[in-house]
Amino acid sequence: MPKAIEDIIEGVENLNALDGLCDTAAGWVARATSRDAVKNALSGTWLSHPLHPVLTDLPIGAWVMASALDLTAGGSGAASARRLVGLGLVATVPAAVAGAADWSDTYGGTRRVGLVHALGNVVATTLQAASWAARRRGRHRAGAALGCAGLGLTVCAAYLGGHLSYVRGVGVDHTAFQETVTDWTEVAALSALTDGVPLRVTAGGVPVMLVRHAGELYALSATCTHAGGPLDEGAVLDDGCVRCPWHGSVFRLADGAAVRGPATVDEPRWDVRTDGDRVYVRSAR
Length: 285
Prior knowledge:
Elements: H1 3-13, H2 19-32, H3 36-43, H4 51-72, H5 78-103, H6 108-136, H7 140-166, E1 185-189, E2 199-203, E3 206-213, E4 216-221, E5 235-236, E6 241-243, E7 250-252, E8 258-260, E9 270-275, E10 278-283
Helix pairs in contact: 1-6, 3-5, 4-5, 4-7, 5-6, 6-7
């Protein structure tokens, strides 16, 4: 990215003065989204894909089309442009709520950039609301100008959103680039496993979590798909799942399915077999 933009974002990442506001707001969001059903819905666990980036296309698309009508259709497109601005305002609400749920699970510089991203979108949405009000009063030119200003700020905020995803890795599957291990690989002694206590091993350079639960032996990748947390340090639950110690994502031991957010991607499962006291694993086929 251009050096000037890079320096600005780095400055935001290091702006410790934002931490008080960040921590307070994140605490409110965490409490509001603590129920499993709410967290799953807002994270996108049910969709197997982060929900926030899907929803942001709606207000951005609506506002882009409104400005396009302002520039190309003039007064004849005024009514349609106003409807598009209003549609974008309505669509902003679920997008913002889903984004807040994701943001509450971040830390440090990522959380600070996320706060500025959110504040930028708040100001942009305010400008769009003022644009809609001006258009409704028949002040089409003022509404178009406000809408254009709001769209410009939305683009800046979206740039920060891209930085969070593609530079900071928010919402990215943290197991996506793990090597596939096709050969059975010896990783541990069966006697080293205690029922209900995860054991971290390595197969082909990939960290793997072994768990013996209710007489069955399971193996999942030890890196949480959500944010890279150490799944082997999590708690094995009575229902045959494991909970990540970082953000509370829950995965089913039998197949790695994500059953509680913020994780949206299933945990990679490994085939496992024993030969005497030796345990072998390979990537599931």
